[in-house]
Write a structure and sequence with these properties.
Layout (H helix, E strand, L loop, with lengths): L34 E2 L13 E3 L11 E5 L2 E5 L5 E2 L1 E7 L5 E8 L24 E5 L4 E8 L3 E7 L7 E6 L7 E4 L5 E7 L1 E7 L6 E9 L8 E8 L2 E8 L3 E7 L8 E7 L12 E7 L5 E8 L5 E10 L5 E3 L9 E3 L15 E3 L10 E4 L7 E3 L3 E4 L14 E4 L4 E9 L7 E8 L2 E10 L2 E12 L5 E12 L4 E9 L6 E8 L6 E2 L4 E3 L10 E8 L6 E10 L2
Parallel strand pairs: 1-16
Antiparallel strand pairs: 2-24, 3-4, 4-6, 5-26, 6-7, 8-9, 9-10, 10-11, 12-13, 13-14, 14-15, 16-17, 17-18, 18-19, 20-21, 21-22, 22-23, 25-40, 26-29, 27-28, 28-40, 29-39, 30-35, 30-40, 31-32, 31-39, 32-33, 33-34, 35-36, 36-37, 36-38
């Protein structure tokens, strides 16, 4: 991810699919920790089945991927959403579930609590996930607000995750390497790339040194991933948003490094989407290598894609293409049968407790005194505002592509006058369907036109575009989202009073495909007051379905 000073700059030169060929390699990744000893070899294509890209059609960007034994893990950016840095788990590199989050709470300042300031497009950017066999511990490392770096650890991917240390150097777009001698190194930077060595306990910086400057002919390089394979050190870096390069050193982690292009303007597997880039390399138990990248695919976000990798005789990685492009399908990785099926990222949630499913993330940190689960999700009003972007305790869920539908059963009987509760399509431009309680009258409404500017300040709080009076204290709300990339796409809203017959409400909402908010559209559950606190709603069922 890119920034100038303290704000993102034009990181994506093009969002459309780019035609072209890969012009080089991709490198070997190290089993579980990033330090590998297995010989480089081509992918094992003995698997009888195929997988289709994207392997996850949900918004998981800036991926770092590792293997620990027979299990694969990945981490992704989450910006201002809390908890942050999801840990995904897979047994075959194709089917993934969310196991937990490395950053339990964004305790990096009041702006992440929506307390006098807001943290939109801040927080958890590109970060790194690693495993250290010597102490059987997972490590997450990432910089926050371009000011300092945080390290969290856990002995299980599900957590609990705890902060190990804070380091004064902001390791921008960092890649953490656990070397074969158990030393810890971090590759980081934007165009000027550096390597830091950490103390043996991972708490402090011992040394840092600039190791490479991108040539002007290449331009920006960032998104470091750091590996040791067969005694060689590799830093895998991206040219946003259309290229991938690799640096290699035979002389140790501090270089010197030589560079080779992996891919540039490579046609991606998702029509209307961008060039695969900024991901990581991983080796299967059988010795095959894969590259897991993402493609810009707005309005839905950035979607993970997978491709096999082979190696040249002199140790450079090469992405395996299909007709000159990143393949839409490939043979499935040849791995042992999984011990179980992973938990689906779609389906029904009845919030039976005692905790939220890790598929959920809050828009900024929640006020934990104002929500609960068990027999449904209870959202008590936590903010008095007419601006959804300022409302605390808005709970979000990624949209499943290419199209999906979220249906919510809402008990609104405890709402108070002035309260607003419902289901939103949430991003820097937003719309929602929900319940307004005013003067003792309950109406279901569709509101559009919520918007923020490029500094993430609210410019419009929305306009009511349609409404209907609803009886009783229960309603079903539905939002359908088309997140196929390449252009703005429609989102539509409907409601039901019996859970069976749904009535369309309001015009279609155009979900924009600008990249600058970074995160894609999400479904969002909310309840806020415009007059006084004290009201509540209960979500008894959430269902995410695909056609």
């Amino acid at each position: 991810m890119s920034c100038t000073g303290q704000s993102p700059v034009s990181r994506r030169s093009a969002l459309g699919a780019a035609a072209g060929l890969a012009a080089g390699a991709v490198l070997p990744l190290a089993g579980a920790s990033g330090a590998a000893a297995a010989p480089a070899r081509g992918p094992d294509r003995a698997a009888a089945t195929e997988f289709t890209n994207p392997v996850i059609w949900q918004d998981f960007a800036d991926i770092d991927v590792i293997r620990v034994g027979a299990t694969y893990y990945a981490s992704a950016s989450t910006m201002h959403f809390s908890p942050g840095a999801p840990v995904l788990r897979s047994y075959d590199l194709v089917n993934w579930e969310i196991a937990g989050h490395s950053v339990p709470v964004l305790d990096f300042g009041a702006k992440y609590d929506l307390n006098g300031a807001r943290g939109y497009v801040r927080g958890v950017w590109a970060s790194s996930l690693a495993y250290r066999p010597s102490n059987k511990t997972f490590y997450w490392l990432g910089q926050i607000d371009f000011a300092r770096t945080y390290v969290y650890t856990a002995t299980a991917a599900e957590g609990p995750w705890n902060r190990l240390t804070t380091i004064g150097t902001p390791y921008y777009d960092a890649g953490l390497l656990v070397d074969s001698d158990d030393s810890l190194y971090v590759a980081y930077g934007n165009t000027t790339l550096s390597v830091a060595q950490l103390s043996s306990d991972g708490r402090t910086q011992v040394r840092t040194q600039q190791v490479f400057t991108a040539p002007s002919s290449v331009g920006t390089l960032e998104g470091s991933r750091f590996y040791k394979i067969n005694g060689q050190y590799y830093i895998f870096v991206t040219r946003p948003a259309n290229g991938q390069y690799v640096l290699k050193s035979s002389s140790g982690p501090f270089g010197p490094y030589t560079m080779r292009q992996v891919l540039l303007d490579l046609r991606g597997p998702l029509p209307g989407g961008g060039v695969p880039h900024q991901g990581g390399l991983v080796q299967t138990q059988g010795g095959a290598w894969y590259y897991m990248a993402f493609v810009d695919a707005y309005p839905g976000g950035r979607m993970p894609v997978l491709a096999p990798v082979s190696w040249t005789s002199d140790g450079w990685p090469v992405v395996q293409l299909v007709n000159g492009a990143w393949g839409t399908t490939y043979p499935s990785p040849a791995v042992p049968a999984p011990p179980r099926q992973v938990a689906p990222m779609t389906g029904v949630d009845t919030f039976d407790g005692p905790a939220l499913n890790p598929r959920w993330e809050w828009n900024h940190n929640p006020d934990n005194t104002k929500w609960s689960v068990g027999g449904g999700l209870t959202l008590r009003t936590a903010t008095v505002t007419d601006d959804l972007y300022w409302a605390r305790n808005t709970l979000t869920h990624r949209i499943q592509g290419p199209t999906s539908t979220a249906t919510v059963q809402l008990d609104h009987s405890a709402m108070r006058d002035g309260d607003r509760a419902g289901l939103a399509l949430l991003r820097d431009s937003s719309a929602w369907i929900g319940v307004k309680r005013d003067g003792g009258v309950t109406r279901v409404v569709m509101v559009g036109g919520l918007a923020m500017d490029s500094n993430w300040n609210t410019t419009a709080t929305g306009t009511e575009l349609a409404s209907a009076v609803v009886p009783g204290g229960r309603i079903w709300l539905r939002a359908n989202a088309d997140i196929r990339p390449g252009s703005a796409r429609p989102g539509t809203f409907s409601y039901s009073t019996d859970g069976t017959t749904f009535t369309r409400l309001g015009p279609a909402f155009s979900m924009g495909n600008d990249w600058r908010f970074f995160m894609g559209y999400r479904f969002a559950l909310f309840n806020h007051a415009t007059q006084a606190l004290g009201g509540a709603v209960r979500v008894t069922r959430f269902e995410l379905t695909t056609p």
